[in-house]
Amino acid sequence: MNKCKTCKWHKEDPKSNGWEEQGRDCTCPKIREDEGNDSYEDDALVYSYPEGGYFWTGDNFGCIHHEPNPNIIDQIIQDFEDEKRGK
User: Fold this and answer.
1) Is the pLDDT of residue 29 over 70?
2) Which of 8, 10, 21, 81 could form a disulfide with 69 if both were Cys (CB 3.0 to 4.6 A apart)?
């Protein structure tokens, strides 16, 4: 399964209290706080107690809603190629 560290939804919170070293906020619209709606998609994760929170995920958490972050994928590929060349 793909991990959050390579996902476009895995974002650093500029108001973070230091957790950014261990993970990031998940900004995927399928993973959210309750908005008072009575219907949700069958693949959503909804926190049903609205209090202005967010979902924090560790870099190695995996999710079916993973969407590759092209900037991170390119960097991983470059690092791998550099390592193969001995740089």
Assistant:
1) yes
2) 8
pLDDT at residue 80 is higher than 90: no
Contact 4, 23 (CB under 8 A): yes
Residue 21 confidence (pLDDT) above 70: no
Distance CA(18)–CA(3), nearest Å, equals 21
pTM (predicted TM-score): 0.64
Contact criterion met (CB below 8 Å) for 3 and 68: no
* Unique residue bearing structure tokens 């900004």: 27
Residue 23 and residue 57 in contact, taking contact as beta carbons nearer than 8 Å: yes
CA-based end-to-end distance of the chain: 29
